[in-house]
TrEMBL record:
HAMAP family to which the protein is assigned, alphabetical: GTPase_Der
NCBIfam families (UniProt xref): GTPase_EngA (TIGR03594), small_GTP (TIGR00231)
Name of the featured protein: GTPase Der
Keyword Repeat: yes
Subunit structure: Associates with the 50S ribosomal subunit.
GO molecular function terms attached to this record: GTP binding; ribosome binding
Compositional bias annotation for Basic residues: 451-466
Binding site for GTP 2: 184-191, 231-235, 296-299
Encoding gene (name): der
Family per record: Belongs to the TRAFAC class TrmE-Era-EngA-EngB-Septin-like GTPase superfamily. EngA (Der) GTPase family.
SUPFAM superfamilies: P-loop containing nucleoside triphosphate hydrolases
Length: 466
């Protein structure tokens, strides 16, 4: 395993900006306000002689209640698993009593500490660094994470403190793992579901809506299969999104859906299916991602409430009737086995390889069973088909007059292919391509004899017309 370096400090000192600079990514959400980061965010720094894992943590505000207390628990877990701690302070704010309190806690851990004095751009460097000399930390480095200054020195210092034997290379994302994005409205139980699957409190869970802001990737191995679970921020209706941080969280959620292979849309059974849930499902379909509907908080509902919920789901989810609906309780763990089975089936269907000969035979049977409507007195011809890609499965059909094929016939073909190949849980894309006309753009030039014959025929037609 790669060694771990944790970034720790007060809120709004630039830890997430430094994380993005070290990992050369934009994975961590950055805003000019405290308390944006809450969960542990992992990335790999590869800019030095050997790679190591960087952990972005939430700011330690000194509060032990509510969201701040839960954030502090996540920070302490990161401190415990780290080999080196980077204590990030703000040069513009100067040395604050809260910094001394955090440093005392870091020293009690017994881990090597690097002091990163951030936001030194535009300041007198000697005066800025002199104030933090009282820390007594040998590795006290000036930084400007926003401009990527001083990060190379930070990486070099961290490498000298990391254990020599912990440098085994790993892939940032296992190619064999199934990438699963958990999406839904705020407070639908996404983080609770991931914690239940992992068997630990990996993510912050609170009754306060909007606890998660950054997309958090977590590895999971269950029943011999590997998964990469992506916990995303809750998505509300656009009219209710006011804070800039929440707007960026929504963008990150949509990006996570595009990067995933399977999207699990969590629905609160007690609040029924909302329009925002349908919007998220529509985004998943537009991205071509395999889809599973997880109806959470199913426990505690009586038989009448369950029947009403099932009827509403069946009525409003007709446009994705190919998606599996699983009823679960993320808090108590019921239905999770069925949920993961549905994820595996959806992933298998989305990545299934289809052969050209079999697709052409299936197309012929579909064409014989129901031919497309006539276009200006002529029926479109569908000649052969071949695969056009996976995730989602794409079928390319060649023929003539395919531009005029009705959407209803396209849906007929999608359902026919789905039933033939048992493609449950994934959308299917049908692409039509017209064959080229070999005579297009060519003009028939008449010879002299043909022109004389044409003139005689015109004169004869005029005589008969009289």
């Amino acid at each position: 395993m790669l060694p771990v370096v944790a970034l720790v400090g007060r809120p709004n000192v630039g830890k997430s900006t430094l994380f993005n600079a070290l990992t050369r990514s934009r994975d961590a959400l950055v805003a000019d306000m405290p308390g944006v980061t809450r969960d542990r965010h992992y990335g790999v720094c590869r800019t030095g002689a050997r790679p190591f894992v960087v952990v972005d943590t939430g700011g330690l505000s000194g509060e032990e209640e509510g969201i701040e207390g839960l954030t502090a628990q996540q920070v302490r877990l990161a401190i415990e698993e780290a080999s080196v701690l980077v204590f990030v302070v703000d040069a513009r704010d100067g040395l604050l009593p809260q910094d001394r309190t955090i440093l005392d806690e870091l020293r009690r851990s017994g881990k090597p500490i690097i002091a990163g004095v951030n936001k030194t751009d535009g300041l007198d460097l000697q005066n800025a660094m002199a104030e933090f000399a009282v820390f007594g930390i040998a590795n006290t480095l000036p930084l400007s994470a926003a401009h990527n200054r001083g990060t190379e020195d930070l990486v070099a210092s961290a490498l000298t403190l990391l254990p020599e034997d912990a440098h085994e290379e790993i892939e940032a994302t296992d190619p064999d793992s199934i990438r699963v994005a958990i999406v839904g409205r705020p407070n639908a139980g996404k983080s609770t579901l991931i914690n239940r699957l992992l068997g630990e409190d990996r993510l912050i869970v609170s009754n306060v809506a909007g606890t998660t802001r950054d997309p958090i990737k977590v590895s999971l191995e269950r029943d011999g299969r590997k998964y990469t679970l992506i916990d995303t921020a809750g998505v509300r209706r656009k009219a209710r999104v006011e804070e800039a941080v929440e707007k960026f969280s929504v963008i990150k959620t949509l990006q996570s859906m595009a990067a995933a292979q399977v999207v699990v849309v969590m629905v609160d059974a007690r609040e029924n299916l909302a329009d925002q849930d349908l919007t998220l499902i529509g985004h998943a379909v537009d991205e071509g991602r395999a889809l599973v509907i997880a109806v959470n908080k199913w426990d505690g509902m009586d038989s009448y409430q369950r029947e009403q919920c099932q009827n509403a789901l069946a009525r409003r989810l007709q446009f994705v009737d190919w998606a599996k609906t699983v009823f679960i309780s993320a808090l108590h763990g019921s239905g999770l086995r069925e949920l993961m089975k549905a994820v595996v089936r959806a992933h298998h269907a989305a990545t299934k390889e289809l052969g050209s000969s079999e697709l052409t035979k299936t197309l012929e049977r579909a064409y014989e069973g129901y031919q497309p409507p006539l276009v200006r007195g002529h029926a479109p011809k569908l000649r052969f088909a071949h695969p056009g890609g996976t995730n989602p499965p794409t079928v390319v059909i060649h023929g003539s007059r395919t531009k005029h094929i009705a959407p209803a016939y396209r849906r007929y073909l999608e359902n026919f292919f789905r039933k033939r190949y048992r493609l449950e849980g994934t959308p299917i894309r049908i692409e039509f391509r017209d064959g080229e006309n070999p005579f297009a753009g060519k003009k028939n030039v008449l010879t002299d004899s043909q022109k004389r014959k044409r003139q005689r025929m015109i004169r004869e037609m005029k005589k008969r017309g009289r």
